[in-house]
Design goal:
The chain is mainly alpha-helical. It is built from five helices and no strands. Helix 2 packs across helix 3. It starts with a helix and ends with a helix.
C-alpha cells in the first residue's frame, strides 16, 4: 500500500509539472507512471488518468489566467473537435485492448519526442 500512495504522489506531481510547464502532456507521463508506480490495474489506468488530468488542467488555467492572462478566443475553433474526439474515445476506448492502448501511447510519445528533437 505504501508503494501505491508514494507512486500516486510521484505520478500526480510529474503530471502536474509537465502540464504546467508545457501546457499539455500530463497524461503522457501519467499513464506510464501509474502503471509502474502504483497497483492500478491496466484496464483502469487510462480512465484514472483522465480523471486526474481534469483538475490539473483547471489549476493550470487558473494560475495562468491569474499571472499572465489567457485569451480563450484562439482555442474556440478546436473545442468542437475536442468534444467529438472525447466522445469517440469514451465510446470506443473501452473496446480497444489495453495492450494496444499502451502501444499507441508509446508510439505517440516517441513521435512527439522525435518531432521536437529534429
Amino acid at each position: 500500500m505504501r508503494k501505491t500512495k508514494f507512486g500516486m504522489v510521484v505520478a500526480g506531481t510529474c503530471a502536474g509539472l509537465v502540464a504546467g510547464l508545457f501546457g499539455a502532456g500530463g497524461g503522457l507521463v501519467l499513464v506510464p507512471l501509474l502503471t509502474l508506480l502504483t497497483d492500478t490495474e491496466d484496464a483502469s489506468v487510462f480512465s484514472s488518468s483522465i480523471s486526474i488530468i481534469l483538475p490539473i488542467c483547471l489549476i493550470c488555467i487558473a494560475v495562468t489566467a491569474a499571472t499572465i492572462g489567457i485569451s480563450f478566443r484562439p482555442a474556440l475553433p478546436y473545442l468542437l473537435g475536442s468534444v467529438i474526439g472525447g466522445l469517440c474515445a469514451g465510446i470506443w476506448g473501452q473496446k480497444i485492448p489495453v495492450c494496444w492502448l499502451h502501444r499507441g501511447l508509446g508510439l505517440l510519445i516517441l513521435w512527439g519526442g522525435y518531432r521536437y528533437l529534429c
